[in-house]
Amino acid sequence: MQIQTDGVIPLIPEELDRDCPPSHIGLAVDIGTTTIAVSAWQLATREHLATVAAKNIQMRYGYDVIRRISFATRPPLTGSAQVVESGPSALHYSIITQLEKLFAQALNLAGTKLPRGVSPVAASIVITGNTSMLSFVCAVPVKGIAAAPFSPASLFGFTATWNEVRFGKACVHSEDLDKPRLEVLQTFNASVINSEVPVYFPPCIGAFIGADTVCAMLSAGIPVPGSDDEPLPGEQPRSMPILLVDIGTNSEIVLYLPPSGTDNGRILCTSAAAGPAFEAANISCGMSSVNGAIDRITEEDGELRCSVIGNDKAKGICGSGLVSAAATFYTLQYIDKNGVLRKHVSKLGDGSPCIQLTPAVYISQQDIRNLQLAKSAVRTGLQYLMEKSPLMPSFYIAGGFGSHLSMLDAVTIGLIPPGLEKQCTQLGNAALAGASALLFSPTLRKKAAELARKAYHINLAAVPGFQQRFLSMIDF
Predict the structure, then answer these.
(1) I want to staple 109 with a disulfide (CB 3.0 to 4.6 A). Which of 50, 88, 173, 379 is the partner?
(2) pTM of the full predicted structure?
(3) How would you list the strands of the sheet with 121-129, edge to edge?
(4) How far is CA 419 from the centre of its chain?
């Protein structure tokens, strides 16, 4: 599986720690709803040694955050001979045991890069993710983010020991869990992580703007508004606005406004519920970005040409391929501005129209509709924040989907406003990169806290005229 692990790591202001033993390893973790990535770094040299990644095992309890939050409210089942964990316990122990395995893999790979005779020892861990994912890791109840007014029990920004984390005692907000099952205890007993290793959780901004967004802000070099301190290495000029977006099922958007007159500058942020179309989860032939997925569509001599990951036989289409297909269809007038299929149309078994890409892969009319709804949600958020900016902002796009997205295709279908593509920097996995920097820098941890504290969250759905804005952005 292709999981985006590379990212633009922010510059670290501190000098190297010359007293740090060469065996000491830092582990940076990005827990996504769909995937988890772990990077191992030598703390003495800041050398990247290894990265491992896998699908988030919690997907068995729900593909998206909403389903998992619902599962987390499930009480223990009674009246059965089989012992069944409560929802919170199942979610917590599943992710912790998966982390134990990924940590072992990362340290094993890291050991191959160290000098002979030096065995890797985990000395520090940073775990980032959205507010729900961190809540599951720390056994923090999620009932408060299941319904309005969406008040998280914790916004994190603290350090706990690995033993406290894995037994669900990371903070005062952690809830009581079931006793770990035998196989879980066996995993803990065989852990490669010392029980007293410190684990830092970066701060979240709100229920739907998590620590992963704060880490991405570090990666983008967004300054702290109103700070009189000298700019940190790698920070963007404080005279220019910055727009950052991580496009996914829940897309986070951040706008930094520089100081102007008596205004010391601001950070505005919002989230857009795009749904799973960008991950191709609700698409007829949708699949993850793995070998066999169509990731780009072009036209050559009147024929559609499909680029397939791994140069394999096409098995389906991923999110970036769906955007590419829609852009190509629109350019060739196979679909009109309303998204209605007009040319090159085939029929499915039920008589509904589609465009056949290969004998095994097609795009249906409903697929186009799902994409339109997703892109409208993101475009509405981008457009609203851009209206707050006095100048065309520098544009940063984070995350796996954004890393493989053609900016020209994004503009063609109306996903991003025209002009932004000329200002665009693709950051890769900015959340993991920001978390990696936090392994080394108390200064950046302090900055992360300030960014989270000073960010102003806008509830996009509560903006007057939101529905009209959303509907006006559906067309291509």
Answers:
(1) 50
(2) 0.92
(3) 47-55, 35-42, 24-31, 121-129, 198-203, 156-161
(4) 25
